[in-house]
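Hey there, shall we discuss this one?
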Amino acid sequence: MQIPLRCYLTEFKFRLVYFLLSFSFSLLIIINHHEAVIFFETYTFLFINDGRFIATHIAELFATSIYISFNLVLFINYPFLYYHCSRFLNSSWYKSQVWFFKNMQSLTFVTFSVTLLLCYFLIFPYTFAFLDTWTITTVYAFKVQLEARIETYVCWTLQTVCLLSNIVYLFFTRITYFYLVDNMINLHLFFRENKKYTLFFICLSASVCLPQESFIQITFLICIIILLELFFLVTCLFFAKNNV
């Protein structure tokens, strides 16, 4: 009775050691190139406020560099972690479970990667451009100038990326759930009944949350409407397929 458990624990130990070694070596390599890592993290702020940051204590820059490196190493080693988990669990799973685990983990990685690229090259530049309009403001006889603190900036950007990626991931997970349960029939009926309310809520949210530039709001709304119509078309195809 102890031999299967011993083999199980031995394999788990070796795979854990392999992952920790990969994580440690990757962390050392990333820390050795900390300047490039910090430049990548602060690239979206480069053209605002001349790319200047402040640090309030001597260890803040080092702690920020470690924080960025740690998160980057987690992202880089995620496929390696997935490989070890899948190889460790596949022997005791059905083919359907293996398929589901593979696709969900692939969806997780792709969602986070796409969200990361969209945030750093599309969302953050417009957001910082809007916030930069408030950096120097004349209020009666006083001038208020904003200084960007690097630790706050890094924490805020990474937390925002994680929040947006989780929202997108939950959305696609819910879509997958509707597809597996009833092939999106109920989703199509719900979306058809509440389509106008959804568009109104999106327009209202965009007018409140986005910068007041007409080009940004119109472009955002056009993209959202196109995506919603494509999504509605997909649900229509599934609905028609199940009712023919």
